[in-house]
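dumping this here before i forget
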Amino acid sequence: QVQLVESGGGSVQAGGSLRLSCAASGTTFSFNTMRWYRQPPGKQRELVAAVGSSRYRQYADSVKGRFTISRNGAENIVYLQMNSLKPEDTAVYYCNAVRAVVVGPSARVESHDYWGQGTQVTVSS
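structure:
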C-alpha cells in the first residue's frame, strides 16, 4: 500500500523559512509527477508547486521566487523549500504524487493519485 508522509511543518514568523519533506513508502516504481498543494483556512485547496520525472518545475505565481520544489526520484521523496514566508502562506500543505499507468491493448493511460495526510504551516506577522 502506497503511503505519503509529510514532515517539516511548524510555526514561524514572517520572513522565516521552512523545509517540507514528503516521503513515499510501499512503492516499487517512480512517480511521474510530485506536487505540493495547500489549503488555507476557509479556502479551497490550491496547487503550490510541481516537479516531473524530467525535472520540469511549475510554481503558483504567489510563491515564485520564494519556494523551491525538488525531488529525489530514486527514493520518491519531494521537498519544498519555503523562504521569505508570509502570513498568507499559512495553510495545511499536502503532498500529491501521480503515477501514469498504461492499461489495455488500446494503451489507455490511467492516472493514479496518492495524497499525504497534510502538515500545518503557520506564519505569524
